[in-house]
Amino acid sequence: MSAAPVVRTIFVYGLALPAPVADVDGNTAASAGVGGDIIVDIEVDVTEPDDPLSENLEDVVCYNKLTQAIKALVAEARETRPDKLAAAIADLGVDHPMARAAHVKVAVRDCDDAPRRGAIARRRRAL
Fold first, then answer.
1. How far is CA 49 from the centre of its chain?
2. Whether 76 contacts 53, CB under 8 Å
3. Which of 37, 48, 54, 106 lies most in the core, judged by the most C-beta atoms within 10 Å?
4. 113: burial class by Cβ within 10 Å (0-12, 13-18, 19+)?
5. Single pTM value for the model
6. Residue 42 — pLDDT band, cuts 50, 70, 90?
C-alpha cells in the first residue's frame, strides 16, 4: 500500500499591482475618483514530488514565474472586475502540473490605501 502524496501549500501574499479595475457596471475606479490598485493573495496546493531533493526543475513551482505570470495577466487586462481577475489568476495557479488547487483573493485598494472590496476565486484540478 502506497502512502498518500504529500501536499504542501505555497503562497504569495500582498502582491500590489496597478490595475484598471472596474465595477459590475463597467465603471473604472479612476472614473469614479478612487484608486485602482489591487492586492493579490494566492495560495497553491502542490503535490510534493517523489524525490523532494530532486534537481529537476520540473519538480519545482517557482514563485517568481508565478508572480511574473500574474503581473503579465494584470498588465494585459483592460478594464476588468476583481472577480474576473481572481478567476483568471486562479486558473494560472492550477496551470503547473504539480498544482492541485488554487485560492486567490483580489482586493481593490482605494486612494487611502485601504482594501475596500474584492473577490475570491478557487480552482481545483480534477485528479
1. 22
2. no
3. 106
4. exposed
5. 0.81
6. very high
